[in-house]
Amino acid sequence: MRSVAVFAAAVLFLAYYCNEPVPDGVTDAGAYRAMGIFFRTLGHVARLGEKLGIAREPHIRRDAISLLTNVARRFKSDHRTGLKVTDTTFDGVKVRIYEPAAVQATDARRTGLVFYHGGGWAALAMDDVDEMMAHIAKQLGNVLVGVDYRLAPEYQFPASFDDCLVATKFFLRHTEDYNVDPKRVGVGGDSAGGNLAAAVAIAMTKEKEFPKLKVQTLLYPALQAFDFNTDSYKDSGHLNTLPTDLMISFWLWYLNDDLSSFHTLKANNHTTEALKRSQYAGYVNTNLKTTTPVSKNNIKFPAIDRIETILDPRFAPLMADDVDLKKMPPTYVMTVEHDVLRDDGVMYARRLEKLGVPVRHDHYKHGFHCCLLDVNAIDVGREAMENYVSYLKKNL
């Protein structure tokens, strides 16, 4: 009788634990449910592991994802077929170069894309996104450079940004080595990688040595740590694919590796009332509300280590002033409805459009964060990737 009770309790627990509610409108219910359960479980394990002193939470997340990726890869065909893949360094920064294996006999220069992967600057390594990088390279049919930038919390801002900028400059100096036209090179990235792509694009407008970037392409990007109470945070902050708590932790691991101010950020108390009335508040307003300009030199911040960095465009590209955003190259922004980062991308696209920058903004009402991680299994991810590659073919 006791064994029956234990079995019944186990079944009830599993039924409860595996009950992952699917947001209205999500068409890939099975994929969303599986991904939500995985990330929820990963969060529990990572936090427990840190409390037990096994390892830091971001390290456990990273190791677990890498383990799962390696196991899953054994059951799939070689996703690199048709590509020449080379691991090397650009000025000391690790990169992975994807080129078509069959080189056509032509004098025409190829296009190039420098891509920065996501993962909250902390949770994903290059091998974890190798399949996505290879997919883009094969569909695009040209050269893709994936940047294996240093990760938080071991390396905090600006390490990831610096690596991406250094690698991009190196590639632009050596495009001849890959038969790439330096005037047809773009940057791109997903999630935290979208943050890095936008930050690099802004930085490159100040460089006179290089040709202008052809495009910047941002896939559900993280662009601001100013306001964690936007509509998208309120709508989707409870979803396990990317909950508010995890996104704030990512920002803090990247900023200063100190979660002691976590609740201050979550309550939006890391910005003062003066800041909430400043132009920076207008930058994170979907209606582009006009506000009172203030000088960074006159702003007072709470006693949080390096908190003033939230206004640095290298850290949070949405905080760039209009004079800098006007110089942006043609821009592609992809957003998904069920994502705390939805409004980051929407606000960035609207600001650029208002400033006269050519923008294409694709929004997927049935999409959710991380849907691009497996475009072969997730329909909305496949649709979004096809549209993204189509944009690159036409504009790069």
Which helices and strands occur, and which strands form pairs?
Elements: H1 2-17, H2 29-51, H3 57-73, E1 83-90, E2 93-100, E3 110-116, H4 130-140, E4 143-147, H5 159-173, E5 180-190, H6 192-204, E6 216-219, H7 231-236, H8 244-255, H9 262-266, H10 273-276, H11 279-283, H12 322-325, E7 331-338, H13 342-354, E8 359-368, H14 379-395
Parallel strand pairs: 3-4, 3-5, 5-6, 6-7, 7-8
Antiparallel strand pairs: 1-2, 2-4
Helix pairs in contact: 2-3, 5-6
InterPro entries: AB_hydrolase_3, AB_hydrolase_fold, Arylacetamide_deacetylase, GDXG_lipolytic_enzyme
Active site: 191, 339, 369
Signal peptide: 1-21
Description:
By secondary structure, this protein is of the alpha/beta class. The chain has a single domain, classed as Rossmann fold (3-Layer(aba) Sandwich), CATH 3.40.50. The chain has 14 helices and 8 strands. Strands 1-2-4-3-5-6-7-8 form an 8-stranded mixed beta sheet, with helices on both faces. Helix 13 links the parallel strand 7 and strand 8. The longest helix is centred in the N-terminal third of the chain and has 23 residues. The radius of gyration is 21 Å and the shape is globular. The N and C termini lie far apart (68 Å). The relative contact order is 0.12. This is Neutral cholesterol ester hydrolase 1-like. GO terms for molecular function: carboxylic ester hydrolase activity. It comes from Branchiostoma belcheri. Keywords: Hydrolase, Signal. InterPro entries: AB_hydrolase_3 (IPR013094), AB_hydrolase_fold (IPR029058), Arylacetamide_deacetylase (IPR017157), GDXG_lipolytic_enzyme (IPR050300).
